[in-house]
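Invent a record, attention on tokens:
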Amino acid sequence: MWQPITRPMHGIAEAAYIPAIASAPETVGFTEEETATTLCRAIGGMALTSSLVTKAEWGAVQVMPYKTHLTIDFVTSAFTLAAPWLFGFSRNEKARNSFIAMGLTGLVVGLLSRPEEMDPAKVRRLRRKADTHPAL
């Protein structure tokens, strides 16, 4: 399978995706759709949490394997695609189309991402480097 997106590139895509989904109700204009707005915040928060605990260059607390992260991204993207019909806001064109776009984006990025775990030696180097900085 052709998978041109490396793990670091996936992290960059995720860094753009998280605020985009969390702010979609305001930027696209469907804040009156409370359920869709709440789901955007929840999906964004879940994606942020997943990202921060992933064993990857961007993970703050590296405990979750990257392959697990990709699986969560896939399930979340499929859920996002179905959400307008599951939660009854499919008639709201802006909300529905935003969820379709976000779900498809997540699926495409996830399917095109290489499921390569980070080298344990690199993890150790990043931890040593982090240990040289003062705690927050």
